[in-house]
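In response to reviewer comment 3 from the previous cycle, which asked for concrete evidence that the modeling workflow produces usable outputs, we include below a single protein chain processed end to end. The sequence was submitted unchanged, and the resulting C-alpha cells are shown without manual editing.
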Amino acid sequence: MIATAASGAYLYHDMNVINRYRTTQDGEARLAAYEKKYLEYAVLKQPSVIDMRLNVALYPDQRRMQASGTYVFVNDTGAPLSDLHVRLMNDQTRLGKVVIPGARLVMDDGDMQYRIYRFATPLAPGARGTMTFEATRWQRGLVANNDDTRVVGNGSFLQNSEFAPQFGMDRNGMLQDRAKRRKYGLTPELRPAKLEDRSAQARNLINDAPWVRSDITVSTVAGQVPVAPGRKVADTTTDGRRTARFVSMAPILAFFSVQSAAYAERSRTVDGTVLTVFYDPQHAFNVDRMLDAMQRSLAYYRANFGPYQFDYARILEFPGYASYAQAFAGTIPYSERIGFVADTRDPDKIDYVSYVTAHELGHQYWGHQLVGADMQGGTMLVETMAQYSALMVMKHQYGDDKIRRFLKYELDSYLRSRGGDVVEEMPLDRVENQGYIHYRKGSLVMYLLQDRLGEARVNAMLRGLLARYRFKGRPFPRSLDLVDGFLSLARTPAERQLVLDLLDRITVYDLKTTGAATRTLPDGSFETILTIDAAKAYANGTGVEKPAPLADTIDVGVFDQRPGLGSFAAKDVISKERRPIVSGVQTVRIVTRKKPAFAGVDPYNMYVDRNGDDNVVAVTSR
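The workflow returned the following C-alpha cells.
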C-alpha cells in the first residue's frame, strides 16, 4: 500500500503538477474554444516582420530549449495600426517576457498564449517597430500523453512556430473533422477564400509568413551539430557548448526550423553551392543517392527556372517519430523512416528517395521564391509545381519510357482518394489543400501538359512567372496566373481545351484497348490493328458525371514488353506516336518492322483515366 501510494503520488506530481494532462477530448474542446475566441481576428491586418534575430539554446540532455529574439516589423497594412496581436500556439513552449516599445499589454490570455498590445500612438503606415521576446520549452518528468518528440536527446527538430511568437490570427491548426466541429458548435468546415476573392491575396499560403532577413544563433551540447537556415558565419565550442551562427544572404520566409543531432556530414560543392547531408553515422545507406539527386535537381532547376538563391543546400535527418520531408530555406529536414533507412537496391522499383529529394529541392523555387495566396488553388502553385519539378528530374534521370511507374502510382492514389472526400472534390486550380489533388492529380496534369505543349516552352513560361513574383509580397499570386500561362502556350483550340479540361474542370477519361491483333505483310513488316474504346466525362464535386465529347491526339504504341513493368525501357518501344482519338469505339493501324508483344492507348498513363490497367493488352496473331 505504501509503494502504491508513493508511486501514485509520484506519477500524479509528474503528470498533473509539473506537466499538464489533457485527454484527446480536452484538446479538441480547447481548440474549439480557441477558435471561438480568436478566429474573428483572422481578417485583422497586422504588420509584417522584415528582420529576425534569434538565439536558440538547446539542451538535449535535459530536453529543454531557451529562445530569445528581436523582430523588426513594418506597418504595411495601409492604415494606422492601433493593436498588435501576438500569439504562440504551442502548448509545450511557454511565451515569457515580450517588450514592444511604444505599446502596452491590454489583453493577456495566459492559458491560450494570445496577447494584444496597444500603441500609445497608432503606428503610421510605413512606420517600423520592434519586439523582443523570450520563450522556454522544457519537458520534465513523465507525461501521460503528448510526449515531446521535438526536443530530444539526439535529433532535436523545431519549427519556428513552435518556439517563436507570430503576429495575428490565422486558420492553421484548427479542428478539421466535420463531426467534431459540429459537436463543439463550430461551422461544418473552414474552407479557404474563393478564387474570386481578391482580398485574400493579402495573405500567403504558408502561415502568412513574411519575407525576412534572418540572423539565427543556435547552441547545443559539444557533441552535436547545430543547424539553421542561412550561411554559417561562426562555429565555436566553449565550455561543453557548441554555438553556430547563421545569416541569410537572401530573403527567406519566416517559416524555418532549427536542428541539433550527433550528425555525420557528407558534402560536395557544385557550381559554387555546397550540398550537404547531415545524417546518423549508422544510416549512411542513401546519402550518396541524396547528394546525386540534389546535384541533378539544382542543375535542372537553375537551367530551366532561374537562379538558386543560396550558396548551400542541406538535408538533415530527423528521428522517425514522423514520416515526411519538409522544405525550409535551403534546409530540408528528412525523416529517417522514408529516406535514410529505405531499401533502394531493386533498380526496378520507384526510386522514391531521389524523387522526394527532388520534390523538396523544387520547393526552393515553388514556396521559397514564389508563394501563392491563401485561397483556393494556393497549393497548386507550391505542391503541384514541386511535383512537376521532381518529375522532370526523374524523366531526365531515367528516361521518358520509365516514367510510367511514377505516373501510375499517382493515378491510382488519386482515384482511390477522390471518392472519400467528405466536402467536395475541386478542380486543380481551385484545390483546397487536398493532397490527392495537388500532389497526385497535379503530377499527371503537369506531366501531360509538358508532353503536349513542350517541356522547353512550359519551363520558359514558368521561369517568367518566377521572375515576376520572386520574393514578392502582397498581392500574392493566384493559381489563375499559372492557368493563364498555360493558356498562352496553347497553339490550337484543342490544346486550349486540354488546358481547361485539366486545370479548370474535373475531367475523367476512360481509355481502353479492347483488342490488338497483328499479321505479317508481304514485305515482312507487321500490321497491328488496335481496337480502342474511348470516353470523356466532366464531374462535379460530389462525383456526378456528365459525358463530354472526346476529340484529342493521344499516344498509341506497340512494345516488346508491357510498359511500366520490370526493366521496361526505351529499347522496348517499337513504335509510339500520337493519333487522333474520339469518343466511342475505333480502330488504329500501326505498321512496324518488328513484331510487337503489347499494344495500347495512353500506354504511360498520362491521362486521368478511371482504369489505368486496361490501356495496354497483349497482341494476338491474326
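The two ends are 88 Å apart (CA to CA). We consider this sufficient to address the reviewer's concern, and the full set will be provided in the supplementary archive.
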